[in-house]
Amino acid sequence: MLNVKREEERTTRERILFMLKQQGTMTAREITAELGLTGMAIRRHLTALEQDGWIEVREARATAGRPSSVYHLTDRGDGYFPKSYSSLTLELLEELSDTAGSGVVDALFEGRRDKLLRSGLPQMEGHDLAGRVEELARIQNANGYMADASREEDGTYVITELNCPIVQVASVYKQACRCELELFRTLLQADVERTECYADGGKKCKYQIREASRN
Length: 215
Known about the structure:
Blueprint: H1 2-23, E1 26-27, H2 28-35, H3 39-51, E2 55-60, E3 68-73, H4 75-78, H5 87-100, H6 102-124, H7 129-142, E4 147-151, E5 157-161, H8 167-172, H9 175-188, E6 190-196, E7 205-211
Antiparallel strand pairs: 1-3, 2-3, 4-5, 5-7, 6-7
Helix pairs in contact: 2-3, 5-6, 6-9
């Protein structure tokens, strides 16, 4: 029974981390309502996560009434989510750039883009723009980007990625972000603008998508 209890605690704490990754910040009351547990149980989990360095708490000023305490992920907490990179990758790219020139590194990222394009194009066939946006979000979500698609009132589509599996590489080699934007534009056959970038210090990557303009 003890092992079962520990597994349940681990699962609850993982769910809390996932919720904070999605929402950015949440109060204990909001977390309690979402998970359907007692306030005492949630606070015990929050205290344990805070003590272990996964989350932090800060005061957020409300529009009315007293400030409330909100929780958010620390760098360690953010690092819990999958990021398929390593220091070795950066070292190899740096060595390649030094010995063969930056053009070779550009070609590597462009080759990756083209490979993703070949695998993604068949999944776009037969879809209108709304369907292509949904399909692209599904592809990105399966690759660890925690992607979500939505539509604004003005008809603009939005893809939001809450995680970047290659963020450390993309922070140094901007070709990665450029190639991803080119990939999205080709797969969606639409006008795509990146309005927030994880690798540039944002909290997420966000893309606004509109029907392709006709000249």
